[in-house]
Amino acid sequence: MDDLLYSPSVQLRLAATKALPSPEPKLCPTGLRGAANAVFILLGPSFGKAHKGVPPYKGGSPRPEGNNIWLGKGLGLSPFDYDGGRFKRWNDFFMQCCESRDIPDFLTALFNLDWCHSAKESCVPEQNLITGSDQVLPFVEAAKPRVVVALTNRVYKVFLDCLNRNGYTFREIPSRLTRPALEVSKPSCDCKWLFVKTQNHPSRSFFSQKDRQVFGEFVKPFLKDI
Fold first, then answer.
1. 173 φ, ψ to 5°?
2. From first to last of its 226 residues, what are the pLDDT tens digits of the chain?
3. Are 26 and 65 contacting, i.e. CB atoms less than 8 angstroms apart?
4. What's the chain look like in SS3?
5. Nearest to 47 by CA among 30, 64, 66, 67
């Protein structure tokens, strides 16, 4: 069963995950959530603004851990507590990329490179993102994803630098996206996935329906079984 939970076949992985009697928590750094065996991973810079009355996390080192990722539970159709327009954009984003609702529900994850609360990405120190990328990479590798999506330009650059430091090789795939779409691989750990960046952050109103359609048309074949 464990092998099937990380199967190269999306359908076999999904079936094994849905067959679990209940979701199983896994220990990970704060700032990660969703499925431990996600085929579709979003990479963000950090938490957004802290909820009212909740002390904000400071980020950086040392980084606490918790049971924040799971076998048997993904992000659903929105990784955030949104309603209205933002929820609709996230809903459409996932459904443009995924063949079925089961993928967002069971096999998606959001991994933040840092764990601070900040409404502005520019306020997150660069070193926090660099250190965080090294902390997050082992969990990306363990998930054995098909697609890893950077949500911002800084995250795309920092994580690409991290992959370079860790011996990954790259093959660019022609696309209509704003940043190069890369097949990244590392034979020593049997890792290969598509690394891309969205044209804009899916929470933003200027990430248009046309943008989501173009992105989804490119990504969806990588989330299908061959």
1. -110, 125
2. 678 999 999 999 999 999 999 999 999 999 999 999 999 999 999 988 888 888 899 999 999 999 999 999 999 987 776 666 788 889 999 999 998 999 999 999 999 999 999 988 999 999 999 999 999 999 999 999 999 999 999 999 999 999 999 999 999 999 999 999 999 999 888 889 999 999 998 888 889 999 999 999 999 999 998 6
3. no
4. CHHHHCCCCHHHHHHHHHCCCCCEEEEEECCEEEECCCCEEEEECCECCCCCCCCCCCCCCCCCEEEEEEECCCCCCCCCCCCHHHHHHHHHHHHHHCCCCHHHHHCEEEEECCCCECCCHHHCCHHHHHHHHHHHHHHHHHHCCCEEEECCHHHHHHHHHHHHHCCCEEEEECCCCCCCEEEEEEHHHCEEEEEEECCCCCCCCCCCHHHHHHHHHHHHHHHCCC
5. 30
Q: Give helix 84-97 / helix 209-219 axis angle, nearest 10°.
A: 30
Q: How far apart are CA 222 and CA 173, in angstroms?
A: 12
Q: Rounded to two decimals, what is the model's pTM?
A: 0.95
**111 Rama class: left (phi>0) / alpha (psi -120 to 50) / beta:** beta
Q: Which domains does the chain have, with CATH numbers?
A: 2-223 (3.40.470.10)
Any idea which residue has 């299908």 for tokens? 224
Peptide bond connecting 104 to the previous residue in cis, omega within 30 degrees of 0: no
